[in-house]
Amino acid sequence: MAKGIDLNIILGGRGGNWAYFVKNQKLIGEFIRVNQIKPSTIGPTPAVGARSAKAFIDLGIRGGIRVAHLHFNDKIYLLDAEQWAKFSGSIIANSKAKLARVKEVSFEEGMALGSVTQTLT
Amino acid sequence: MSATTSHASPFMKQHQPVDLGSRPRRYTLCVTLRCNLACAYCYVGKNHATMSLATSRRALDFIFRHAPPNSSIEIGFFGGEPLLEFPLVQNITDLVETHPSYDPARVSLTVTTNGTIFSDAIATFLKAHAFKVCMSCDGPPHVQNLFRRTSEGKETAPMVERTLMLAQQALSPVLVNAVYHPQTLRHLPETLDYLSGLGLRQIFLNPDYSARWTRLEAEELPAVYRALADRYITWYLNHDPHFVSLIDTKIAVLIRGGYHPLERCQMGTGELTIAPDGGLYPCERLIGSGTDRQHQIGSVEHGVDLSRLACRQAPGDQLNPECNDCSMKDCCMNWCGCSNAFMTGYYNRVGPFLCTSERVAIQTALEVFTRLERQLGPVFLHHLSGAPQRNSQLKQKES
User: Fold this and answer.
1) Is residue B56's pLDDT more than 50?
2) With an 8 Å Cβ cutoff, are B249 and A88 in contact?
């Protein structure tokens, strides 16, 4: 039997997704500030705004996705393709830097660390 | 059908149960421990225990009482094989939908099935009640039949393949979960091809953490995951995006800076599994036979005693000391208590295979992300918004 899959989280649930940005909020805030992106006037709340944006704006971005946007401090910031490329570029650069510093634990070391099973009663 | 009556477990007499500190939004109803398969790696201790309607009612009262207000709730049907008890699944669904606290906008239903039991009646019912359906299939026949056989030892590949085809016609979307094992790891790319060939576009790949993984398999991981990534990229370039959990979830966490607390399993506080007798467990993987109670943390009558989790917490650091200063710890599934328990015996101690697999998966996802973003522009916006499956769903709708 497979592990049950947390469908709501993976499928995006029913609203409330802006909470996910909390971890990258610093990066997002900095990106918005540096690139002087103005908040969108669409909708007073992120969820409503997101739906409105999808309904009314099509920047022609491929992949079936209507519009690139970021949520920050309860506001929506629409990105054009160039801004998104910058944003994703910063994610890539950040992630590569982190991966370069990733802790390398050999399999044998991991075995030793994980071998606590034998101590269980 | 042998209905199991609900009762408090022995520890409840010793511990004063406490109410939940937080409010789980994900509940798994283990409606039966019966199963028509005897998969070699299964973590469920099969027996005839089946949830009674009285326990179902108490379980639903418990769920609606403890679920967070104004938030989505997921109620999953699990087993054993839940569709062996299809009439019970129907009855419980009716209890859910007629419960005074039921709100269709908040509650979603899921079922995880082994794909051997399916009919027009089942399909009609699942569709009518908007079930999200996940089927288990490990891959092409020679992979599927290696571990997933009936209790009489019969092969299951033909019937599961047939069910996957029928289910896709009747239900949309159908999710599929493939478990890989040291013996089947190198067949993983083939498994992806096979499932894609059947038309499936939402594919979950999960290792059997209880297996004895060795350095040999760990060394094979980069090549195997790279082969998966090659297929993933090709599909995107051919305008046929697939959701492949191993890649998509890691792209999502990279974009979002790590797993959000809500995405972590939050054993006992974010999710709960309810056994046929009403016992509460932190995860469906830990239910065992439903009677050994190793991981039981409460019951629907008495609530949850989170202190029970402490007996499987290794002393000292919250995680392996090596995790604390790892630069990728936020993107790693080191928080998965049930996986950890299978590997090391403790909820908070990570085994070496998970460490290696997570590192390689993150590396692979980053390569995919970099390449596709450079080549196609912004394709992972839904990953940023926490809905990485949207890409494959949109494509399915378009086609």
Assistant:
1) yes
2) no
